[in-house]
Amino acid sequence: MTDEELLREGERIDDLEVNGFRIIQNPSFFCFGMDAVLLSAFAGTGPKDRVIDLGTGTGIIPLLLLAKGKCASAVGLELQEAVAEMASRSVTLNGAGDRLEILQGDIKNVRELFRGSSFDAVTCNPPYISEKNGLHNDTTAKNLARHEIAVKLEDVVRAAGYLLRPGGTFSMVHKPFRIPEILELMRLNRLEPKRMQLVQPYADKEPNMVLIEAVRDGNPWLKVLPAMVVYEEGGGYTKELLRTYGKC
After folding, report:
1. Whole-angstrom distance, CA of residue 179 vs CA of residue 72
2. Per-residue pLDDT tens for 53-63?
3. pTM of the model
């Protein structure tokens, strides 16, 4: 099937600039951001791991993990049928059907979809904003991606605790103001926080993202990594950020 045959109205193909991988995106739904790229770099997955990405959207995180050799196989679980179908076409675009499967389904129903302890790693870039806070975007797809309408933080963490094998890792990106809630929910679901890194837009600005990784049934010990600064004073990317993108 040609690239043109894989595209629908309003869609485009973007180069991920990693081992030839590409992705289909539709701006009227949403396009992946820096948070997904940072999470794919931060996640402590290995080349032999079976990974599931919860709320996968366009499939960007499992696609990047595969492109970087950071997993052997992956599943992307996405609630919205149209978005899941688009992500499936990105799998076809990259010839990755033997390694990546996109499933349409609800994070809250993982017990009906998968066996417990059946994954080595779980990743998630969940909605950041609780249903009662913040301005909603115009389209349903963007609302569901950014606001806790269909799934809440507790649903994501509970699902990760169920899906992970003992010793497996759960990596997520979120907003710093929710760190206390994240840590509490992780421990309630047998996920011990092990690594955390704050992300700052500029060196003199407060963090606007946090990357956290927990281990199922791990021992208490949290390593806080040096903060990542995204932009230099003049506006260009920092060397650390470029290394994350594989550009430095």
Report:
1. 30
2. 999 999 999 99
3. 0.92
